[in-house]
Amino acid sequence: AGLPPSPTPNTNNNTNENAALCTPLEFATTYQRPPDGNYTSAGNIYGRTDNITRETLQYVVGTMEIMSDSNNNNINNSLVHSVSSAPPDSCNNSTTNEETNVICAAFSSGMAAVHSILLSLMSNHTHIHILLPDDAYHGVPTQFHTLFDTMKHVVSWTMVDMTDIHQVEQLLRTRIKENRGRQREAILVWMETPSNPLCKVTDIGAICDMVNMARKEETDDDDDDEEQMITTVVDSTWAPPCITQPILIGADAVLHSGTKYFGGHSDVLLGLVSCSPFTSSGKSLSQILPTVQSTVGAVASPFDCWLTLRGLRTLHVRLQKQCQTALSLAKFLDNHAHVSKVHYPGLTSHPQHSIASKQMKYGWYGGMLSFEVSSEEMACAVAGAVKTIQRATSLGGTETLIEHRASIEPIGRVTSPLGLLRVSVGLEDVEDLKVDLDMALNVATRVVSS
Asked: Which of 182, 204, 262, 322 could staple 258 via S-S, CB 3.0–4.6 A?
């Protein structure tokens, strides 16, 4: 909750004495040019490349990604660096933490952030191959299918169960082997944990260690001594930095849909990418991502950045409540007569519970869960019967939402079980939510059986 007073990267007041407690909101899109025509190195020119509110958000999120504490049992200790609480005196469009060179870039949406990662990799490679989770937010594979189905020579992908590290390793090494003797392609290992909507938990550290070993072995075997470009990216939208810090576990980059938990009030559209300052691929991505951000222009708006900064002040306390409620609901549903299966990493019956316990701090397993009932008809009837819970897409807000995922996924590419309902837990009293779900399940059972 504690942001430093007025943490504005371009401030000249290094002591922040008498500073505003609320981050300034800068709407300006253009800035006055000096009489001699020369902008100073720290001066602003145009809102697409320079905005103090966006730079502040980028600095704060970048710092959150690498701040360590004693509750993160899965941190790679060799990566831990101290981070100053005071922002640097000046920043460029994609903001850098001086001590660790963390590049964070804020985009107009999570999907713009996804595509900007691809564009960054495309700048130096003629082809990208993506190892994509078989369970992930459907918008990501939809983007690939929509834009690249007829351009497989530019971008291709393979779906894989990211919880099966041996399968991931086999696919990765096969791809590397096929590239030998040809122009190198970039390989993107995409992780989403917990996954949407089945709550699968990927072992980030194990995947990153495996990738590092493959990189090293390929470099040792290659006469040209050029490291195979493999980039690991974690979509950690469901597990913000106060729960999981992928960069400190070894990932090259981490992506968040700021629309969700960061904003936290269902009124922001924003995406963020932070690049690791500790890995070669993270450093490589950080060199081109700011250029993609500014030249393509899909930057986050000042107001959305300001709203997200406001949301970050309560992120920890909101998540604490949401995680506690989600675990209680998961246990309740797991014992309900009309529920066939519950997906939540906090349940000891979850297949990756031990990994989640290592990777997710404070014993918090996220505010998202899903459960299955007997049929699609039953699932839709449950969603239609709730009163306190709202029927809506998205997640991470103060209100509890329920959604039948299969009916919103693209025709022909439905991956969610037909009887599955996804729940984004809000801030309501947990007993009210239990009463609502129990009522809806009982009503739906009577309707379907009649």
From this structure: 262
